[in-house]
Amino acid sequence: MKKVIIASTSTLHGSSYLEYLLPSLKLHFKDCKNLLFIPYARPGGISHDEYTAKASEAFAKINISVKGIHEFENPETAIKNAEGIFTGGGNTFLLVSQLYKNNMMQLLSETVKNGTPYLGTSAGSNICGLSMQTTNDMPIVYPPSFQTLGLISFNLNPHYLDPEEKSTHMGETREERIKEFHAFNTIPVLGLREGSWLEVKGEKITLKGNLSARLFLKNQLPTELAPESDLGNLK
Amino acid sequence: MKKVIIASTSTLHGSSYLEYLLPSLKLHFKDCKNLLFIPYARPGGISHDEYTAKASEAFAKINISVKGIHEFENPETAIKNAEGIFTGGGNTFLLVSQLYKNNMMQLLSETVKNGTPYLGTSAGSNICGLSMQTTNDMPIVYPPSFQTLGLISFNLNPHYLDPEEKSTHMGETREERIKEFHAFNTIPVLGLREGSWLEVKGEKITLKGNLSARLFLKNQLPTELAPESDLGNLK
Question: B173 to chain A: nearest residue by CA?
Fold first, then answer.
């Protein structure tokens, strides 16, 4: 059975890395002693080793050890043998490029669909949708495709931001950008605010956290979904 | 001689379309009675005809008539014969895709480099740089390349936004995104605030408007450039 947690952000303002998710992660990864970490989204600043250490530190609190995929001689085998997988945030264009370059996109998708528990945060969540086309990130590298894992039948906009009422800035709001996406695409888009996550168990998809999420469908006005909403039929 | 105006935004909050630029545009296009308008960036909302009408209305105030490139049977000839060219804003991924699809990227670049006066706003400014990789837009379509017109030897970030000091949002700031770009690219990036524009005359590039602009170079701290700064040597 597919078991996926798709989080808007790794970190809430004022709390530590993954802190707010740890109670859920303890249940989600209850059969795992070791996690495979995919640090590919990180565009510098810290190394893959340092990023992996950061994930290790958080998961140590729930007695799970973490090893970065870059530490394995054969990353494909690492994915196939993983007890659980976590893809961290960063830049989605970079993450998607790296997954294609290392020939992992399809393998990762199949592995998670076959039941290996998965956690994505931010860019690691973006790739759970059908395409990365509703990312907020800057196109710092050119990926061979915008198609992603397709673990769910819609797209995500992590770190969703409501428009600021008093703004005098003329750049597009997040809502306007998603509307632009729907001028050329029919895929539903879920705006996940920081503090929200999706829990996927087989075909069941539940909105978690205390906040509502904003659902965008082509040619329809956006709607707000309450926590615990079931998104299993959204496609 | 190359004659280009590259504006952060078409519209300032509280004023009408192109209003703040009209005195400069009157000089810039002083030898033009007719302008060719490229509306390709517009991702729906209004049609190419309606977008062209909006540009026409603004340019009528300085006695220049405007015709959309979509109205021409042969768009290549339209570019070659244009007295002046204006590319409006919208979505840069869409604009770049359309320019490649219609086989216009190289022709437009050559035409402007050969002296046809050009105005870009927002997405129409983004394409003046070496690549569109510092756009703020959402990747709603997949372009065949991120390379753009290369009218100047650096990249632009239009609608540049300073970080909000009191923000609790965990998404990347504009400055952080540009730093990510520099993890993989050496091209300088100029953050152009709304109300700023570049005036390119041959090899001379001058920052115009009342605001400073923020310059990002790989592995260096960002700096502020005062109005009237000369960017001709930036590469």
Answer: A137
Which residue in A133, A140, A161 is closest to B180 by CB distance?
A140
Residue B169 predicted with pLDDT over 90: no
Residues of A in contact with B179 (CB under 8 A): 44-45
Task: Please answer yes or no on whether A9 and B135 come within 8 Å at the CB atom.
Answer: no
Contact A9 B133 (CB under 8 A): no
Buried/exposed B1-11: b ≥16 CB within 10 Å, e otherwise: ebbbbbbbbbb
Q: Is the four-CA dihedral A24, A29, A35, A39 of positive or negative sign? A: negative
Domain spans of chain B? Answer: 3-225
pLDDT value at position B218?
Answer: 97
**Per-residue pLDDT tens over the stretch A136-163:** 999 999 999 999 999 999 999 999 999 8
User: In this predicted model, what pLDDT tens digit does every residue of B118-152 receive, in sequence order?
Assistant: 999 999 999 999 999 999 999 999 999 999 999 99
Angle, helix B92-101 to helix B105-113, in steps of 10 degrees: 100
| One-letter amino acid of B24 | S
Multiple choice CATH, B3-225, 3.40.50.720, 3.40.50.880, 3.30.360.10, 3.40.50.300: 3.40.50.880
- State the amino acid at position B208 in one-letter form: K
**Cβ A28 vs Cβ A5: under 8 Å:** yes
Q: Do A184 and B43 touch (CB under 8 A)?
A: yes
Annotated active-site positions of B, please? Answer: 122, 137, 159
- Over residues B170-219, the pLDDT tens digits come to 888 999 999 999 999 999 999 999 999 999 999 999 999 999 999 999 99
CA end-to-end span of chain B, whole Å? 19
B91 touches chain A (CB under 8 A): yes
Write out the two tokens for A160: 């969703």
* Residues of A identified as active-site: 122, 137, 159
Q: Does A165 touch chain B (CB under 8 A)?
A: no
Please indicate whether, in this complex, the C-beta atoms of A13 and B146 are within 8 angstroms of each other.
no
pLDDT at A16 over 90: yes
Q: Does residue B45 have a pLDDT over 90?
A: no
For residue B41, list chain A residues with Cβ-Cβ distance below 8 A. Answer: none
State residue B27's pLDDT score. Answer: 98
pLDDT value of position A166: 82
Report d(CA A177, CA B8) in Å as an integer: 18
What chain A residue is nearest to B180 in terms of C-alpha separation? A43
Q: Does B12 touch chain A (CB under 8 A)?
A: yes
**CA A207, CA A200: separation in Å to the nearest integer?**
9
